[in-house]
Amino acid sequence: MKRLIKILVSICIVVGLFNLCLLFFQKVGIRINNSSEFSNMAEVSPQTNCVLVRKTNSIKNFPFIFGERLYLYDIDKNREYLIGNCLFPFYSYGDMLVVQNNKVYYNYFREGPGIELYSKKLKGVGTGRKILQEVGLYTVSSKEIYYLNIEETTFKEEKNYLYKKNLENGEIKTVLKENLSDILRFDHGYLYSWNRYSKEVLEINEQTKSIVRCPQNEPPLWIGYVDSKQFLIIDESNIVLYNKRTKKKRYLVKNIKREDELLNEKAKIENGYLYYSNLKSDFYRLNIKSGKKEKIISLLSFHDIKKYIKNNEHYTDINFYKDYVVIDLSYSSSKILNTMKRRLLVFNYRGKLIRNKKMAALL
Questions:
Q1: Which of 140, 179, 149 has the alpha carbon at shortest distance from 41?
Q2: Which sequence ranges are marked TM in the entry (predicted)?
């Protein structure tokens, strides 16, 4: 009996050391070139072709954990790199994921108030370190992080003030005391957000301490820099180009009525074109100057994908990367058992399906 126990222990040690070596070589292989000055929450790493992917744990994985695992998926190499393990039972990684300067920023889904933000090196081990307590929205560079936080005034009103934290010395400064919500993006030197009480989009230049305000009744889903004279606003029914000098709006898309054609919160501007999508998972390329648009992707036009989603409950997480559009698709495979399946769909910007990758469902 003792001999059998020794043999089993020896096997476990050998397997453990082998997997540790695999983990080490996997970490060494991570290469990511994120040249963007800032990275915006939930946009992951749009200047690269690397995707952060959450996965459920399996008994086949080493080390065994109760929570989720976080991987960096290199589309060009078609290879996954383990970034972190969610070690706490009943915890999972949240949707506030960002890669910036070879670090990953993340939160956990759990019960309780506030959202805690952590960071760790892509090649590092362990659980990382806590950056912020009870953060709302954020955008981060290699040296500092801008974020919204809830402050209580003497009138018992919740105010989402804009703060800045130095990641090197931990110093926190108040940038703007306004009721900001729904969005916070950094784009070409400007911070964009929305004042929910005054109903205005704000373009903030912290260097010059100037603010451009644009009336906007509906909460914006996305705001982006076009050029020194204009920025673009997307809400669920409209795409608006705002001229800062004339203070006039130009509607590129207006008053969408059909529910399945309402707009998504992810977009990309490149070389004078806006790339965006709707709830039906139709993707468009829109010429900002001429206003002409063309559909480049329609999920329902792909037979292998149509069978997943037609008449089935499904959810999509869409991200725009350097050379690809990536859709994390979860869909119901059985209405009786309510089981879910999952696919990672990768398209190029010409609408060609590059990869249809099967993954374990999170739901």
A1: 140
A2: 7-25
